[in-house]
Structure formats: structure tokens, C-alpha cells
């Protein structure tokens, strides 16, 4: 599984757009990029997954450049309830069957009023 | 459709005692995973089980830790002779049987965790 690097922490204010970038220089051809969100005292929750270009759902957007060596999770108009740790994971889309999700340190997002 | 359930949510043990953590996967899910999260750290994979089988235990400490997922009942993570370093949050996740085309393979659904405190 490719190693990922993301900022340890970020601060933002309510109503702003937040972009969290993840570097994954050694991403393999079959690898997908997946983001999880973890609130304090809760288990991680799947946010979004993509392979290339742009993916959007009701929660976030994921931007992946052509070389796929990085990706950016975009959270539009954050609120206080978006304060959480965000994890970027990279691996074979079918790796879920092998069970081993590898979490890094994640990015702690603090949204201020 | 209930999510992944874990109990107890909080567990306090004294050094040398045993800790048993239970996980009931989502309905229809036959794969169970255990992760450990130490304070201020990310989650670390421990073990992956299917019914009555351990598929991958590469993240399990060699001693004192064991896991099972019997044909009937919840998955159990057992820690014998606990030490203070075992204090952590233990998360269980489950996923459906092998992915079908178009299904999100990273479909591990996490429970709320069990917070173990060893005194």
C-alpha cells in the first residue's frame, strides 16, 4: 500500500472552504484514494473515494491531478461539526477484502466560530 | 439496519486481569476487523477474521492477544494479563462478503469502539 503524507493539523472558520491535501508519490496503477473522517470518541467513517479527476458527493469533493501523486479533499462551507480527524488512504480498490486498511496520523481539522 | 455494535464501550481493568471486547458486525456482513488506536495516534490494524477463520493476524501482538469470530455470536478480542500499555481505543469494523462489480470495496463500517483503561 502506498504511503501517504498529509498535514498534521489545520484551522478554519465556519463558512469557509477547507482543502486538505494528501501526497502519495508511490501510488500504483490499481490504487484508489479514499478519505475517512473520525470524530472524537467515534470510529472512522467513509467520506469519499476516487481514482482520477474529480469526485463529488453530498459531503465533499475529491480532486486528483493527472499524475495522481496527490489528492485534495475539499469540504465546502465547514461548520463546527466538521471538526474531526481526516485520514487519507491509498490502496488497491479490492484491498478491502484483505482487511488491512492502513491509517496514517491524519489531519486534525479544527473549525472555529 | 443497526450498525456495528461494540461492547462494552468503556472497560477498566487492573494490571494482570483479562479484557474481553465484543463486536457484532452489521447484518449480512461476514468479515470482521479489529484496530487499535493509542492516544494521539492513528488506527493500527490488528486482525481480520471471517466466520471461524483468522485470515490475517499480522498486526496482533505475539503474546496475550487473541481473536475469534465463531459461527454463532459476536467476534471477541481477548487480552490476557493486561498491562498499562494496552490502554487504548479498540475499534471493530465489518464488511460484506467479497465485493461485487461496482461495489465500494473499501466498505469497512466501524463501530463506536471500546475504550480500555488499565490501572
Describe the structure.
The complex is a heterodimer of chains A (113) and B (119). Chain A is mainly beta and 113 residues long. Helices cover 0% and strands 48% of the residues of chain A. Chain A contains no helices and nine strands. Helices cover 0% and strands 47% of the residues of chain B. In chain B, the strands form two sheets. In chain B, strands 2, 4, 5, 6, 9, 10 and 11 form a seven-stranded mixed β-sheet that branches. In chain B, strands 1-3-8-7 form a four-stranded antiparallel β-sheet, with no helix packed on it. In chain B, a hairpin with a 5-residue loop joins strand 4 and strand 5 (43-50). Classes of the chains: A mainly beta (113), B mainly beta (119). The A-B interface holds A 32, 34, 41-46, 49, 87, 89, 91, 93-106 and B 4, 31, 33, 35, 41-45, 48, 55-56, 58-59, 91, 93, 95, 98-99, 104-113, 115.
Unreliable segments of 5+ consecutive residues of chain A: none
Strand content of chain B: over 45%
What's the total number of strands of chain B? Answer: 11
Residue stretches of chain B low in confidence (pLDDT < 50, at least 5 long) are none
Binned, the helix content of chain B reads under 10%
Q: What is the straight-line distance between the termini of chain B?
A: 37 Å
Largest binding interface between chains: A-B, 26 and 30 residues
Major sheet of chain A: 5 strands, mixed
Radius of gyration of chain B: 14 Å
Number of strands of chain A: 9
Number of helices of chain A: 0
Mean pLDDT of chain B: 90
Quaternary state of this entry equals heterodimer
